[in-house]
Design goal:
9 helices; two-stranded antiparallel sheet; single chain; 60% helix
Amino acid sequence: MAKAQAAPEKKKREFPDVYALVFLMCIVAMIATWIVPAGSFERVTEGTLTKVVPGSFQYIDRVPQTPWDMLQAIFQGCINSAGTIFMIIFCGAAVNMLDESKALTAAFSTMARKLRGKEAIAIAAVMFALGLGNAATPLGLEAARGLARSSPGTASDGLCMLVVCNTASIQLIPTTVASVRAAQGCQTPFDILPAVWLASALSVGVGILACKVFSKVWRA
């Protein structure tokens, strides 16, 4: 009797690459220029700021975009935002170099060993690092791996707290937002610091409170 042929394995569906998603969004936006009515507001310039005049919206003729126009818009957008793009790539590359050198792994593994049972100190240190800019997020991820090694197979309260604080960290220096504001001509890009500190502190506070509540609920 011939052996039954093994059923072919089904390919697992993978989430599309982020660049594919961005390009798809560009295509959707291009198609929308042929469908969605166009409109504009009147604007006035006061010093270096351009403000929209409330109640001045009016419909205008549509300017449908072709695939060639879409490609040109992507290219022009990269030129206009070159400063912001370079800063994000530079910061990300610097952190990635540290990660590839295994310096982060060694540092956070040592920290996890020495601060076992004192996760609050580790969380505070990582939160400070994350507050220096979004490019420091890999620091938090590596710290989480270090804490996970100290309690394999179990997500401790400290590890859960670190993940929450890694997601909603207090932004001491919002470099990304400030660079975008500076690229748009803002003379004081860091004047948002009080609002950023307040908003990020509230988000961290809510996250910590949720961790405390859920840790008690699961133990009940």
